[in-house]
Amino acid sequence: MPARHLAYTIAFDSPGSSGHRALAKMLASSLMKTYFPGDVIVFRNSEAPLFLVERRGLEEVYIETPELHGAEGAEYSWEWKYRVAEMIDASQYDRILFLDCDCLALRNLDHLLEGDWDIAYKPEPGLRITLPQFHCFLTEEEMQTLWCDGVNSGTFAVRGSCFHEVMKAWEAIDQSEPCRKRTCSDQASWNRLLLDTPLKIRPFPAGEVVFPMYLNPRFSEYHQGALAHNLGGTIIEKVHFTFGLYMQNFYCDPTALFLQFLEV
Amino acid sequence: MDLDKELPFKVCLNPPRMEERRQWISEMFRMHRLKVLRWPSSEKSANRHHRGFAKAGLRENYLTFMLAARKARALKSKALLFLEDDVTFDGNFRDRTAELHLPEDWGLLYFGCLHIERPQMVTPGLVRVSRALDTHAVAVHERYYTAILHSLHPRRFRHLEGGPPPLDVALSHLHQSIPTYAAWPNLAWQRVGFSHHNGCVYSNYTEEGRQKFMPDIVAGM
Questions:
Q1: What is the pLDDT of residues A155-173, one digit of tens each?
Q2: CB nearest to B38's CB, from A126, A147, A203
Q3: pTM given for the model
Q4: Which chain B positions have a beta carbon within 8 Å of A202's beta carbon?
Q5: What is d(CA A209, CA A125) in angstroms, rounded to the nearest whole number?
Q6: What is the ipTM of this complex?
Q7: Which domains, and CATH codes, for chain A?
Q8: What domain count does chain B have?
Q9: Do A214 and A231 meet the contact criterion of CB atoms below 8 Å apart?
Q10: Cβ–Cβ of A147/B27 closer than 8 Å?
Q11: Which residue of B has its CA nearest to A128?
């Protein structure tokens, strides 16, 4: 029997905005179009469903939040990466994949979830862990001696059997007193966790998770990835870029036939 | 063996020009929870010298090892683990290392090497080295810092036409006088990649870490 996995994302919008909903819808749709082998859960703070017609294996969970604004709202949203764990029955899954809602599956993701590991993660190539977006839980000694790259906390996978343990450990670090000013603290605490955990950790295979709007802006580089993580830019820019990539990836053929339907 | 207790001082040669290797090796260290000091070369890529060695890269490797041994001695560190930045590790490196039982007399320990004379099995997972090459992951016990620094001093090779031999060859001359052991099978080895010493994509090892060069030496072990 093939392994059963779960992918989940968080789509929390500020009042009057629907950018994260739009991104989450494209992500969920891309997972289904690329035959994600398991369930998908979208946690949203808007009441209306993303999909009016039910999709098999896709669940939407409404979470009531306070009104979210600016950086404080973003920090609050990021905490829900581990806070939603209590709503997930991890025991039924082999691997649990978290994806920021600005991700898009370009190809099937099965291979990202294979192998003997407990946690898979994505480093940001060329950006040291001592940079402010990663460093707020590093000691002074580590600031001098660590030379690995920082890890992005927007894409990771955890073995189902240790998912709750990992999320609890992450929460404990994230809620603890940082060594320096908090910046992207969920990411910094995720980096701390990876440095300390006795579990088996592995980066995702090289070139499979790409950052088109950030570290991999060349088309020839990012279009070969399995998963695009479209961080960078404003929420509107993300929606525009992700929409273009979605349409190109799923509806473009060499004759641009889809365009013929639209522009008869 | 407790890797952090037995080998408290770990260094890895990674020149600044080797950014891809920095990313690779630092990721390896994170995966295996190894706290390793990065030792960048003091020479810039445009300003590297042979100074009597056959190649600038060989000199860089040789002298970095010597400097690391000297530093370990100055720190009174119990042992030094020297790593090269194109090393790769067994997937269960930590666990398998923990299972190793080192004899009291050990002086050099290879986590992986290329045997050129047949080694002797000592305990499960450990062999006594007769003669072996490569220095991708080699440890030195504090008892032998001075002996090695003395034996490998470049001045001692002044009479040789080609200058000092590569580090692994120079160390291999000491295998009979310094009790030398190696993990068996290899727990660390050179990954397939561009070798700056050989000028081509190259490794002496298979993807699983078995030696490709002179495999007959270890056949049946």
A1: 999 999 999 999 999 999 9
A2: A147
A3: 0.90
A4: 31
A5: 11
A6: 0.86
A7: 5-262 (3.90.550.10)
A8: 1
A9: yes
A10: no
A11: B23
